[in-house]
Design a protein that fits this description.
Layout lengths: L9 H12 L9 H12 L7 H8 L4 H13 L5 H17 L6 E10 L9 E5 L4 E14 L4 E8 L3 H4 L2 H7 L10 H14 L6 E4 L1 H4 L2 H9 L4 E5 L4 E3 L30 E2 H6 L7 E7 L3 E14 L13 E6 L9 E5 L7 H8 L4 H11 L11 H24 L30
Parallel strand pairs: 1-5, 5-6
Antiparallel strand pairs: 1-3, 2-3, 3-4, 6-12, 7-8, 7-10, 9-10, 10-11, 11-12
């Protein structure tokens, strides 16, 4: 989305927007660095680390602006969660003018890092790189309708090696109450917090990294939320109409058996086995819209099944839910699988359309990284990492509100504000001296 499509009154709306956010940082003297930081994130420039932003925002007093902005993001004691709540309160009404919220989207985003000292850095899978490498990973919760989406929670995933290392925790300023949590556990905490804060519920969407976790799906259901989440091809399920065997008959001695069971003749199958056994008539070509202009289509099937993973720990079979499969015509086997608790009378096209809304946040994080510098923060500490992300989301929230005011035909290419000219001889710290 960038800084394009801004009307002539954008700057005054930006000042009003920052004013609304100032309550989240608690002190009036933080208003100036808050404004400068958000503006620096939105102005054109290859680097969105603190010093280059300070040079673009206040070229006449780069050193003072740099010190003020650095202290604000890395040291100042304000709550990133409170900032995100303030952004949400301001931006969601603009999004909801185009329709009520439909989905809550859970994901994680990887931020590549060359060093090993920044908080949470470890060799782990990084989606941005498409492979395992040194990176930080943040778990996110976004809300969306057909018009737009907004991240409302952002939390660093702290690997076990970090969580259990007191020296590294101390150097990075990791709070004492932060303990190791899996990504699905972090996501559930974000969901509970959003419900407690009164965010309008939506269908929870997540990829297989979360959907494979049975406790995660169960937790969503216990919170009264509907979901459509990815699963792996190896996930176990019962064929339509089947369920685990009832508990064994009581022998008359000891405690009566209470757990359902499998046996060699009566057992679940894998998601892939189930999908490849479906008859040709089960498959339909479905078209859906991704973003505002892209129309996509593929082949899908959906049937009602009971998930089977670890169901022998329970006294009752799990309820039936949707098993949705995507198998494009030009592929040798199915490519994606989902479980969903959407209503049992839902049409296949509607089931696919809601499930595919998850792809919307890929655009969000592409914009946050490429245009607003989400991954450009150079500090190493816990506080700065979360403050920088909250301010990136705040800047993104403003751009969303601007886009909500402008019809597609009204888009133009003018940024909200051109970056001021840099002073003669300005050289970013650490750059090579000219010959």
């Amino acid at each position: 989305m960038g800084l394009h499509g801004m009307s002539g009154d954008s700057e005054s709306r930006f000042e009003s927007y920052v004013e609304d956010l100032c309550r989240a940082v608690r002190h009036a003297d933080r208003a100036a660095p808050l404004r400068a930081y958000c503006l620096g994130l939105m102005l054109p420039g290859d680097s969105k680390s603190v010093e280059p932003m300070a040079a673009r925002v206040e070229p006449g007093r780069v050193q003072a602006a740099h010190q003020s902005m650095h202290h604000f993001v890395a040291k100042a004691d304000w709550s990133d969660a409170t900032m995100l709540a303030a952004v949400r309160a301001t931006v969601l009404p603009a999004i909801e003018r185009h329709g009520k919220l439909r989905t809550w989207i859970i994901d994680d985003t990887g931020l590549p890092k060359k060093g090993v000292h920044s908080v949470g850095v470890a060799r782990q899978y990084c989606g941005q790189l498409g492979k395992q490498d040194n990176c930080q990973v943040a778990v996110t919760l976004s809300v969306a309708n057909d018009h737009a989406s907004l991240p409302i929670a952002y939390r660093l995933y702290l690997p076990e090696g970090w969580a259990s290392d007191p020296a590294r925790r101390h150097r990075a300023g990791v709070p004492d109450d932060v303990t190791f949590r899996t990504k699905p556990q972090l996501a559930l905490e974000q969901v509970r917090a959003a419900l407690a804060e009164g965010v309008a519920p939506g269908v929870v969407l997540a990829d297989a990294g979360y959907g494979v976790d049975t406790a995660f799906r169960t937790g969503l259901s216990r919170l009264g939320l509907t979901y459509a989440v990815g699963i792996q091809s190896t996930a176990s399920l019962w064929r339509p109409g089947e369920a685990p065997l009832p508990p064994k008959p009581w022998s008359g001695r000891g405690r009566p058996p209470s757990l359902v069971r499998h046996d060699p003749e009566h057992k679940p199958v894998s998601a892939k086995e189930m999908a490849t056994s479906l008859p040709p008539a089960a498959w339909q070509t479905v078209t859906w819209r991704e973003g505002t202009n892209i129309v996509l289509s593929s082949r899908f099937a959906a049937i009602r099944v009971r998930p089977a993973h670890r169901d022998t720990l329970h006294s009752e079979p799990r309820p039936e839910e949707w098993f949705l499969v995507e198998w494009p015509e030009d592929e040798a086997e199915p490519t994606k699988y989902w479980f969903s608790t959407l209503p049992d009378d839902m049409k296949l096209a509607d089931l696919v359309e809601i499930t595919k809304l998850r792809g919307r946040i890929e655009r969000d994080f592409q914009n946050l990284k490429q245009e607003l510098g989400l991954g450009h923060y150079e500090g190493r500490g816990w506080r700065g990492f979360h403050h920088h992300a909250a301010l990136c989301i705040a800047a993104y929230g403003f751009l969303i509100t601007e886009r909500s005011l402008i019809p597609p035909s009204g888009l133009c290419s003018a940024p909200i504000r051109q970056a001021p000219a840099l002073p003669d001889g300005y050289r970013p710290r650490g750059s090579a001296r000219p010959a």
